[in-house]
Every structure is written in structure tokens, then in C-alpha cells.
Amino acid sequence: MFVRGGSIIPRQKLVQSTNETPTGPLDLDVYPGSDCSGSLYLNDGKSFAYRKGSFVRKALTCSVGKDGSVSVTIGKSEGTFQPWWREFNVIVHGMSHQAGKAVLKGTKSGDLPIVRGDEVISVLIPARKEERTLIID
User: Fold this and answer.
1) Total structural domains in the chain?
2) Could you tell me the sign of the dihedral formed by the alpha carbons of 66, 31, 39, 42, in that order?
3) What is the CATH number for 18?
4) pLDDT digits (tens, 9 = 90+) for 68-111
5) How far is Cα 111 from Cα 95, in angstroms, rounded to an integer?
6) Are the C-beta atoms of 136 and 114 separated by less than 8 Å?
7) Is the N or C terminus of the chain more exposed, i.e. has fewer CB atoms within 10 Å?
């Protein structure tokens, strides 16, 4: 699969119909590069309630520091809809195994567990309504 650098692709677990609710975290596949931004949007998919604000929208951005660190920002929630996910699994592609730590900016949570794969780093973070920035270096 070829993906343009600067892409952030949300993925959910497989469901058999739109009447099913996915389980587990929402995966965010991050491919760092220039103009790394996008938007995550969800509503109930069944009604026109989105017209009255029943939706969730979050801005997504990423950047690469001069030291090779990657920052992924999940913006503040807009709208009133409560999404099914409770966590984000942030999967940064093209990152070497040299990444030593992952932290959430502005929190006292300390280093977060990192799962390393072949040129992939994965970090599970709790979903919140406020903006969150994950820094991996």
C-alpha cells in the first residue's frame, strides 16, 4: 500500500453492518510528512441530528522535530455526539526502533508504553474531549 507522507488515516475494527458498534480503540495511522493534517468526523449515521450539533469533529495534525521526534495532536472535540471509542491507538509509520519514550504533553502521566514493530511505533492513549499532544522521541 502506498500512502502519501503527511497523511493521518483513522481506522476502526471490522463490523458486519452499520447497526453494529465497533469495539476497542480507534486506530490513527500516522505517516509523518509535510502538511500533516486532517479531520476526524463522526455522527450517528442514521438521522439528521448532526444538523443540531450531534456530531464529533477533531482536528488531527503531526509534525517531525529536528531531532527526529514526532508530535501528533488530536484536537479538541467539536459537537455533542459521544463517539464509541475510549482510546486512540496512534500508529506512527516510518519511525525507527530508536524511539525511546512517548509522553502526553501537559500531563503528569509519565512515559507511555510503546509497542515497536518493523518501522512502526504504536502508543495507546485515552480519548478526551480536550486537545491532546503525543510526543514520541
Assistant:
1) 1
2) negative
3) 2.60.40.1180
4) 899 999 999 999 999 999 999 999 998 865 667 899 998 877 78
5) 18
6) yes
7) N
